[in-house]
Amino acid sequence: MADTTTSPKRDVAVLVGSLRRQSFNRKLALALAELVPPSLALEIVEIGDLPLFNQDVEDDASPAPWIAFRKRIQRADAVLFFTPEYNRSMSAALKNAIDVGSRPRGENAWRGKPGAVVSVSAGALGAFGAHHHVRQCLVALNVPTMAAPEMYVGKASDLLDETGRVTNDSTRELLTKFGRAFADWIESNLPRKAP
Questions:
Q1: Which residue, 91, 130, 180, 194, shows the most beta carbons closer than 10 Å to its own?
Q2: 57 backbone dihedrals φ, ψ, rounded to 5°
Q3: Residue 172 in contact with residue 164, Cβ under 8 Å?
Q4: CATH number belonging to the domain at 10-187, selected among 3.40.50.20, 3.40.50.360, 3.40.50.720, 2.60.120.10
Q5: What is the SS3 assignment for 12?
Q6: Distances (CA, A) of 67 to 39, 43, 48, 63, 90
Q7: Are 145 and 111 in contact (CB under 8 A)?
Q8: What separation in angstroms does the CA of 83 have from each of 135, 162, 194?
Q9: What is the pLDDT of residue 5?
Q10: Residue 100 and residue 70 in contact, taking contact as beta carbons nearer than 8 Å
């Protein structure tokens, strides 16, 4: 378990795949930020305004939003993905952010950063299909992704009040357990610095 008294605070970039104002994914991300150990600082990195990735645009000159996004991801110690499920996969916005961060070739901003995936849906399956599509991308990007505990949150509307607070004790306990495990995962998987 991570020693929160001596460990440096770890910067965790949080990507929320749902752009909806009342997104369950965003609400759960904010709830988790309050339940993680004090060794972690979670910050949502906005992805809604990123231009669609296009190699021709990259070849001409990367747009400023792409450059700023890549720098933010490079600065992070770890990454956390919250995904809804659209048509059995992740949202276009989340896939675009993943693609933007992976370029230009040879400068993958995600490389080696410890990561985890949380999938959230109004339905019972907890966005299972999207969850695994995100994981598949992270393998290709060399993101060491926490295998357990897995976090699929179904029927999210039953777990949150109108302010976004988690009303279900077992869900709050599960989020707390997940946060502790992720803190340990980060410490165990941070890239090693050369001596």
A1: 130
A2: -65, -45
A3: no
A4: 3.40.50.360
A5: strand
A6: 28, 18, 15, 7, 23
A7: no
A8: 11, 21, 34
A9: 52
A10: yes
